[in-house]
């Protein structure tokens, strides 16, 4: 494969799950500040496997190598993103901070206020999934 052809598929260097492309804007917003400021150019990929320590991999734009030039792990991500939290602590809504546990509790109490709150925020234009959700959407 030539260097001019864009990488179409990437596999996580740790868990070998398929990774998905993610915009640099997302990566810059979720990496710890010192890493975001030093971020090199490249193509960025996201590993969504909750059991994997890898969150992002960067491949140089001028290579078709299967080996990433840089790997960013859970500890490299700002705490607010919690990309690999599990169970009740897992964020469902990164924009407004709702967890699985909060949604379960809301549903169990029949309040159902969380879906209404999220809907209102989205309608007000306050959603920022492209920068707050580790997957970029």
Please indicate the percent range of residues in DSSP E strands (runs of 2 or more). Answer: 15-25%
Strand order of the largest sheet: 1-2-3-4-5
End-to-end distance: 29 Å
**Order of SSEs, N→C?**
EEHHEEEEEHHH
**Most strands sheet:** 5 strands, antiparallel
- Overall mean confidence score, pLDDT: 87
The beta-strand count equals 7
Structural class: alpha+beta
What share of the residues lie within helices?
Answer: 25-40%
Radius of gyration: 17 Å
Stretches where pLDDT is under 50 for at least 5 consecutive residues are: 1-6
Q: Give the overall shape.
A: elongated
Total helix count?
Answer: 5
Keywords for this entry:
single chain, 137 residues, alpha+beta, five-stranded antiparallel β-sheet, two-stranded antiparallel sheet, 5 helices, 26% helix, elongated
Description:
A five-stranded antiparallel beta sheet has the order 1-2-3-4-5. With 137 residues, it is α+β, with helices and mostly antiparallel strands. It has helices at 24-30, 33-37, 100-108, 113-123, 129-132, and strands at 10-11, 18-22, 43-46, 54-59, 70-73, 91-93, 98-99. It is 26% helix and 19% strand. The chain has five helices and seven strands, in the order E-E-H-H-E-E-E-E-E-H-H-H. The model is unreliable at 1-6 (pLDDT under 50). A hairpin with a 6-residue loop joins strand 1 (10-11) and strand 2 (18-22).
List the helices and strands and how they pair.
Elements: E1 10-11, E2 18-22, H1 24-30, H2 33-37, E3 43-46, E4 54-59, E5 70-73, E6 91-93, E7 98-99, H3 100-108, H4 113-123, H5 129-132
Antiparallel strand pairs: 1-2, 2-3, 3-4, 4-5, 6-7
